[in-house]
Specification:
By secondary structure, the chain is of the alpha/beta class. Helix content is 52%, strand content 9%. The strands form 2 sheets. Strands 2-3-4-1-5 form a 5-stranded parallel beta sheet, covered by helices on one side. The chain has a 3-stranded mixed beta sheet with strand order 6-7-8. Helix 4 links the parallel strand 2 and strand 3. Helix 8 packs across helix 9, helix 12 packs antiparallel against helix 17 and helix 16 runs antiparallel to helix 17. The longest helix has 21 residues.
């Protein structure tokens, strides 16, 4: 569009360049300033500046007084706009054909500054071109937007960025590995300025290698992420935890490692669901084949479960003081889905049953590392056998609740125990423990439900079996503590049947 305007001599008075950071808005504005003032401007076949005439050279050097740049992030007031633009816009240019005002981060201007600029945009002199650049066009007043031609700048595609980085390395004489260029493009997230800054930083250390890029940015090697995924999918929780400890010993940040792992599992899910080849284009040699092999060996539910558990791990890390324990627990859950007391365990068992009925053999267990036999501990005369937990049906509800709080206080001393301690037991019926929170405590209810599986595992230690947890607010659950369930036996049966049909996707025949 800009080239057609230059070719036809129909350059507008005001432009708005909107888009993410590092995508070339200000650079395009400077190129446009050259193009409208180049000695060849207006010629039918010329749509780019020559970069050789005096106007192009002075604008490129930043010495042209008629090209004015204003950083609205640091000059937000009406006085700045009045001094830099309004008071001088009426004077004709002295060196070039047209004055060009480039306003960066224009959305940072105050309302008074926008109002002062509006009159000039409504009736601009013929020798002036305004270029407004912003990363947040929603905060630009509609009165300003309506007087500008708007151009949207998008994040630069991975392949385009790698090609440009390769060109920069050739021009500058930088030796760079292909994997390093892909790693830089991934880390820059579509911002070319960020990619060039990373390239310059790594090039200052010598040859640009993939390992150097990953070490400089603190990222996890993709080969390690692929290995971690293989171990988890193969059910080798011990090997996955050993790899986690190795990466931590090498200085990898656990939070960054979790982000990198979630990104790998996200690609695994996307390729499993859509088979999108664009996912593989961002990977170096050998990694694409690893991802394809992993996608062929898992179901969509398994890939989604990895992503979901990874996101849950990232959320829990924000409040945890010992993130290594969270990582280890997450790897065990990922490698052994049948250990969970929830829908994931049920889905894993159903999948195993389907494979058994289809005649498939279960995968062999991961070989355990040989360890020297541990000597049997000497019997202590004072040691007494641990008392087995009493069955839930034989234990009064207040006693069960007291023991459960004691277990949670020992295992979950963080926010979860605090929220549970605010609740009171309501009923214990058909393997389901119902607890109640006061009105207005919906936040506590949501946090407890997010860690519901941890509470249910604690009930197994107290009652000898896993009890399903139900959290209600005052007024929406059964009666007071210790009372029988308000649901009639027929209602309980109907609820059980409905849950079964929902889980297995069936319907009632008779």
């Amino acid at each position: 569009t800009l080239q057609n305007a230059l070719r036809g001599g129909q350059v507008a008075a005001a432009y708005l360049f909107a888009g993410p950071r590092g995508t070339g808005k200000t650079s395009t504005a400077r190129i446009l300033a050259k193009a409208v003032n180049c000695v060849h401007a207006g010629e039918p076949e010329v749509t780019v500046p020559c970069n050789q005439c005096p106007a192009c050279v002075s604008i490129g050097d930043g010495t042209c007084l008629d090209i004015v740049e204003l950083d609205a992030a640091s000059h937000t007031g009406v006085d700045d706009v009045r001094d830099v633009i309004i008071s001088k816009v009426q004077f004709p240019p002295t060196e070039v054909r047209r004055k060009v005002y480039i306003v960066d981060e224009v959305h940072k201007l105050s309302n008074a500054a926008f109002n002062a600029l509006l009159k000039t945009l409504e009736e601009p002199p013929g020798h002036v071109v305004f270029v407004l650049a912003t990363t947040d066009p929603q905060n630009v007043p509609p009165t300003i937007l309506s007087r500008c031609q708007r151009f949207e700048f998008h994040r630069i595609e991975h392949a385009v960025m790698v090609r440009h980085l390769r060109h920069v390395c050739q021009v500058e004489g930088i030796q760079a590995e292909e994997g390093a260029l892909h790693a830089i493009a991934d880390a820059s997230e579509g911002a070319m300025r960020d990619a060039l800054v990373i390239l310059e930083q790594v090039a200052a250390q010598g040859e640009v290698g993939e390992g150097t890029v990953l070490a400089t940015l603190g990222l996890t090697p993709p080969q390690a992420l692929a290995r971690l995924t293989d171990l988890v999918l193969g059910g080798d929780a011990g090997g996955a935890i050993a790899l986690l400890h190795q990466l931590q010993a090498e200085g990898k940040d656990p939070a960054q490692l979790a982000k990198d792992a979630v990104e790998w599992w996200r690609k695994l899910l996307l390729y499993r669901v859509a088979g999108d080849p664009a996912v593989l284009m961002t990977m170096g040699s050998g990694l694409a084949e690893r991802l394809q092999a992993q996608a062929a060996s898992v179901t969509t539910e398994q890939a989604w479960r990895l992503v979901r558990l990874g996101l849950s791990l990232l959320e829990e890390m924000r409040e945890a003081a010992w993130v290594t324990v969270l990582w280890e627990a997450a790897l065990v859950r990922m490698a052994h889905p049948d250990m969970d007391a929830g829908s994931d365990a049920l889905a894993a068992r159903v999948t195993a049953l389907e494979r058994h009925l289809a005649g498939e053999k279960p995968p062999p267990p991961a070989p355990a590392k040989s360890r020297p036999p541990s000597p049997a501990p000497a019997a202590s005369p004072q040691a007494l056998p641990a008392m087995p937990p009493a069955p839930a049906g034989d234990m009064p509800l207040p006693e069960l609740w007291k023991r459960l709080l004691s277990v949670l206080q020992r295992k979950e001393s963080g926010p979860l125990y605090t929220y549970i301690a605010e609740a009171r037991p309501v009923s214990l019926d058909a393997g389901r423990l119902t607890i109640s929170l006061g009105q207005g405590k919906s936040f506590q209810k949501e946090r407890i439900e997010l860690r519901k599986e941890a509470v249910e595992q604690a009930t197994a230690e107290v009652a000898g079996r896993v009890l399903q947890l139900r959290v209600v607010l005052e007024g929406e659950g059964p009666g007071p503590a210790g009372a029988a369930s308000a649901e009639a036996p027929g209602k309980v049966h109907e609820s059980f049947v409905k849950n079964a049909t929902d889980i297995f996707g069936g319907h009632i025949v008779e």
